[in-house]
Amino acid sequence: MSELEFAYIVCSVLCFVIAIVFHEVMHGFAAWRLGDPTAKRQGRLSLNPLKHIDPFGTVILPLCMLLMNGPVFGYAKPVPYNPSYFKDPKKGDVIVGLAGPAANLALAFLGAMAAWLLYAPAHTLVVESTLFNYFYLMFLPMFVLINLYLMFFNLLPIPPLDGSSVLALFLPRRHLPQYYRVQRYAFPVFLLVIVVVPYVFHFNPVSVYLDWTAGNLANLLYPFPVA
Question: Can you state the percent helix, strand and coil of the chain, rounding each to 5?
């Protein structure tokens, strides 16, 4: 393995872990602020990555996407929360659901801001320092891109992705328990589709969607094209 390949793997892992940890912590933090202590009681407001790692979603899925030359995305263990604690369960569900993608958007902006602040000295530093070269030309653009990938992926309105929380606003309250039960089984089917469809039809609709959304936004935010 070359130094460049090793640096790419290290940067990918660091960016992805930071992105999913903050994503999940913000779900729990939003629920806690709305009156639900579930996530806090289970230690899910911690920034310790080990509290949030899901073997498939955090390790296997991103690795498969990397090997398939697709966008690196995945998920962590969902943060548990109980909508019955919320004064308005529907509105609370939306706030908690969108808190994760909002965290990733904020991180992407921070990464892009750092890139712009370092833009002038970077012309010299990338030549003088190998470490800065990897940080500025590899880590920061990847950090922005992965956070945007994670944000737009989770905004898909497919249970139990975060975007599906908006659907709860349009459901009668009596149907919410059934809706939450459906969420448990919808995601494995969705994962099967995003793995099988590209393999069978040689077309990945999720990659196209992420390139069009996250890729274009990353290019707007960063000082130079990153996707």
Answer: 75, 0, 25
On the 0-12 / 13-18 / 19+ scale of CB atoms within 10 A, 125 is middle
Q: How far apart are the C-alpha atoms of 44 and 77, rounded to whole Å?
A: 10
The pTM of this model reads 0.86
Q: Can you read off the two tokens belonging to residue 106? A: 């904020």
Q: Write down the catalytic residue from 3, 5, 24, 128.
A: 24
Question: Phi and psi at residue 45, in whole multiples of 5°?
Answer: -95, 5
Q: What is the pLDDT of residues 108-143, one digit of tens each?
A: 999 999 999 999 999 899 999 999 999 999 999 999
Rounded Cα distance between 75 and 61, Å, is 8
- The confidence score (pLDDT) of residue 69 equals 64
Higher-confidence residue of 167 and 65: namely 167
The structure tokens listed for 195 are: 């793995």
Q: Tokens in use for 184?
A: 């448990």
Catalytic residue check, 24? yes
CA distance 79 to 31: 9
